[in-house]
Structure formats: structure tokens, C-alpha cells
Specification:
309 residues, single chain, mainly alpha
Length: 309
Amino acid sequence: MADNSSSSFSLWRFLLRVIPLVIAAGVLWRVTDQQNAGFTIWLTKLLHRLAGRPAPYLFCDGSKLFWHATMFPPVVALTLASYWIRWPDRLLRTAVGYVAHCAMTTIAITLNESPYLQPAALLNPLTSTLVNANYLMFGVGIWVLAAGPWYVRPGMAKSGAGPWRVGLMWRRALRSLCCGWLTRVLLLWAGVATIVPIYAMFGSAEAMSARARVGQKMSKVPFFPYPSKARSFVEVRQQLARDQATIEALMEIEKAIGADSRVDVESAPLFYLTAHLLNSLRPPHPGLAQKFRADAEYSYHRARNARAR
């Protein structure tokens, strides 16, 4: 049943619903920030894998920043308060809106933390702007595209309408897949996602080629233990194979760092990845293990300094 008595938009009626929902969603966001951030980080790594680039160790693994947790209260509250849409449809659009907003957060994380993109001072304002826009504006944008007041039209929200039928729900969902609100939300995400290849175009040919080789070598490294400080038991033969693959990946990372230095930039994600890989090595000689630990700490230091800049 629809919960309004007319098909016209009323700002007062809308505000009465959206204000308490914003407060409730804000509380939910605060108590679920770690799970929320964890979901966006999982999506970020999934997108890396879909692009053929493994992402085992990113900055967000060690430190979940406030913006890693998608700011979902706007899109959730605005969509649930859209009384001109039936409740089942509102719930569906809210769920899709949340996932879409998380997917936009993954773009911001990728630009800031992926080791496969060369940093460029020219694009630093772009990445910070993207973080700020994603934090607040994109949630409102998703609501406007998926459930905004322009969906109010005669016949959508009549008092005394019949019960929601499953068949009608599926027909509406199929229309949404073809040419409706879902298409618009997907186009918004696709538009934001194009920033990644545009960003990559600003990297030098040498650096991006080196990063492509890093991705190829990283895909051959069996990631155990994970996280890198874990001391889970593996067979000696497996550990030796992993260490050899890790060393080959480290050699390619060193070449990528060298390519960056030739254009006077430093990649914090590359240094961070180097530190994690060094920490994951398990050489039999104690002296060599100590050297790897020292090299890893130095790489962490370089990563922190590069990220601060």
C-alpha cells in the first residue's frame, strides 16, 4: 500500500519523513563504519581482479580512513523517504543505491591507493575533489536518478491502491534493467569510473609499462600468509616457491619506482606494497630475515612520507 494520499510532491511531507531517517541512518553509519569500509575495500580488490590486477596489499588494509566507509545516510534516507514510490521499490532502490555509492568509493580508493597508477601532481586536486564529492554529493545524485521527485506522476501513488503483486514487481524491475532508474545509476557509476583510465593516461609510458609487468608478476605470487605478519604453517616447498615469486615481483616494483624517479614522483602505494612483500618473505637464514625486516621498515617510512606529500 502506498503511504500518501496524492500523487503530487509535498516538500513538508517529504521533510517529515527524511529528517528522522537521516538521523537514524547517521547513527547506523557511525556504528557500522568498519564493516562499511570493509565492504568497499572488498569491492576495490574485486575490481582490481576483474581488471587482471591483484590487489593484496593496499593502504586501506592497514588503515581504514573515514572516507573508506561510504557515507550512505543521504542516499538511504532520501530514497526511503520517497513516499511517491511503493515500499518494495524503495527498498530495492535503496539497496542498489548503497552498492552503487560503495562502487564509487572504490574509484576514489583506487586513484589514491592503487600501485598500478603513477601519481601525478597535476591530478592531486582531482583525487581530493573526487573524495569530497563521493562523500556527500554522489549519494544525493544517486537518489535523484533512482527515486527523485521527478518520479511523481499520476497513478504511481494512489490512496487505496491494491496490494503489491510479485508479478508487477518483477515487471517493474525488468523495465528498470532495460531503460529505467537502474540504467541511469549504472551510467553515473560508469562515468565516474572513466576517471581511472583517464588518470592512467597521465602516467609516463615507461612507468605504466613497468606497472603492467608488476601486475603480471603479482598474479603469480600465492598470497600466504595473509596478512603478511601472520605465521600460518606452510610446507617448505610452498614457501620457497612463494618467496621466489615474491622476489621476482619485488624486482619489477623496483623498476617501476625507478621509472617514477625519472619524472620526479614517488608512489606511496608501491613503497607500501614493497614493505608488505618484504615482510612476507621467510628466508631460512636469521640474518637475511633481519635485513628484510629492516628494508620493509624503510619502505614503510618512504610510503608514509610519500603519502604525506
